[in-house]
């Protein structure tokens, strides 16, 4: 029994030692404690600190957020379009085989210029019908005149006179209809009267402009009402701007517009709103505002170009700061304000803003988080504070 008790004591002591070792191993080591947390929190709270000498050296100036009467704008985007009357699809009323094409893509043409010729043997029958109709009209005219004279002298029969008059009117209508058909395919009816029949349909430019894509070639068959080529006159190009519902009642005809051509190194041109649609586009809560562009012919503008625009909707009182007070970093905009002073040491912090209209050296700002009303902000030298903050962040 004593031996058994002795073994029990030994086992109990062994378990006690193992438990103690496990407890020690689970305790966090002192050097693993996040002792840098307080340092990081302190830097975040105090922002950036500068001395008075530094402020004087870089010329940092202070001011307040003011109420300014600035030119207000509505931001919009869109693309350049051409009015329907300044673009054309060249088609045929009668089909045929392409005999010759006289123009190239990108070439400027004038209205009435010959673009192509189409071979169609059906033209012979049409011209022959017109010639026969002319002969029939000549006979009907003489008969009508003869019966008219007899009827006036009471020597004729009234029924015969009426028949001759009806035949005369019918032949007149027939000749006029055939003449119109010949004119529609570009043939002078006078030539058909003289027996000078042609088998080629000339294709003429309906408007002046630049030839776009040509869909025909020599020897191909040109179908009726199918586009042979298109012509665009970019001299009357205008801009269709997308305006959303929140700005709908701010945009009106007559307002000035500044356009920014995103594909031409952000070149700026000016224009004016001349019309605003009164219905939403498809299912979107947006309307189209139409703007005419000043001197569009001299700006080498092309239909389909995308643009950004600022529509001037007048002036209004807004919270504003000098333009130099707003800095950009990480895709956001900030202003810096004086958080506290201690002796000759100045502590600054940043406040995120959303900028708006810019005019007279001031920029409209909307604070993401509110600040005290009369707090001092940095109006000059904000970029120096930003660079100092970035440098401190890199060192950290």
From TrEMBL:
Q: What is this protein called?
A: Efflux RND transporter periplasmic adaptor subunit
Q: Does the keyword Transport apply?
A: yes
Per UniProt, residues of the Multidrug resistance protein MdtA-like barrel-sandwich hybrid domain are: 87-233
Please report which protein family the annotation says this sequence is part of.
Belongs to the membrane fusion protein (MFP) (TC 8.A.1) family.
Source organism of this protein record: Mucilaginibacter sabulilitoris
* InterPro entries referenced in this protein's UniProt entry, alphabetically: MdtA-like_BSH, MFP_Cation_Efflux, RND_pump_MFP
Q: Which UniProt keywords apply?
A: Transport
